[in-house]
Write a structure and sequence with these properties.
The chain has 266 residues and is α+β, with helices and mostly antiparallel strands. The chain contains four helices and 13 strands. α2 (115-126) links the parallel β6 (100-107) and β7 (140-144). The longest helix has 19 residues, at 7-25.
């Protein structure tokens, strides 16, 4: 005969469940931001009009990269792709007269990381840089990448404290390269089995008075290649040649997939 659970057993189960929920909800609050971490490779450049702050949660790992323009900047946006995740970018579409912004934010955490963008706007107001007047509202725009799922054992995301720590530590002329900031836990080549860690990258060049900078966080399903078509990075099979061209990787992946047994009926 099956015994009916006692009220004491139900109460204990309820308490354990509540404690488990509380622990899960408190995970973010117990985290300590790692701000402007030491990087093996750093892009250094001369552009005082732009300040960059990096902050990470090592427990994720995940992070955020903040580009702050102390005197604001004119901007335009081009959002593409099948799964975009952005905040406030509509205001930067062509057609508006004054697309001035204070900051651009890149973050991990997928859509959960979008609060990093609005967190910078509230920090600008709280610090007295912007106000509540209609013509002095802080404008922060941002985009996220997906760094959750099977690549790590938790669902920690870049949140408001992390983003504001990065903003308040922003400095000019220094950009960490590799697995830092929003690029702390990104990969490339998942579509064809590479899964190589990538990170964030940057480049700067000055020609006369003209300054051009480019910053990226690469989390592509496809393969990043060099100009001659070779994979820039790929965790290839042990029996694969060390240097593979992109079309060779795709062909090998397609051949492997075709030879896998069909277990759909099992």
């Amino acid at each position: 005969m099956r015994r009916r659970p006692t009220s004491g057993g139900l109460l204990a189960a309820a308490l354990l469940s509540a404690l488990g929920c509380a622990a899960a909800q408190g995970t973010q609050e117990r985290l300590t931001p790692l701000v402007n971490p030491t990087a093996a490779r750093v892009l250094e450049f001369d552009w005082p009009a732009l300040r960059i702050g990096i902050a990470e949660y090592a427990e994720g790992p995940t992070g955020v990269t903040v580009f702050h323009f102390p005197r604001r900047a004119l901007a335009v946006v081009d959002v593409r792709g099948g799964g975009p995740g952005t905040v406030n970018t509509d205001y930067l579409r062509l057609g508006y007269e004054s697309p001035e912004l204070d900051s651009v934010v890149f973050a991990g955490g997928s859509w959960y990381g979008l609060e990093s963008t609005t967190a910078i706007a509230t920090a600008l107001k709280d610090d007295g840089i912007r106000t509540g007047n209609w013509d002095n509202i802080a404008l922060s725009v941002g985009a996220i990448v997906y760094d959750l799922g099977a690549r790590r054992f938790n669902e920690i995301y870049p949140d408001k404290p992390l983003a504001q720590a990065a903003y308040r530590a922003a400095r000019p002329g220094v950009f960490p390269l590799g697995a830092h900031g929003a690029g702390r836990n990104v990969r490339t080549g998942y579509l064809v089995g590479c899964n190589a860690y990538s990170g964030q990258g940057g480049a700067f060049r000055q020609i006369g008075d003209l300054k051009v900078a480019a910053f990226t966080v690469v989390n592509a399903l496809g393969i990043v290649t060099t100009r001659d078509g070779r994979a820039a990075a790929c965790y290839a099979d042990t029996d694969s040649p060390r240097e593979l061209r992109a079309h060779e990787i795709v062909a090998r992946h397609a051949d492997t997939a075709a030879r896998k047994p069909d277990r759909s009926a099992s």
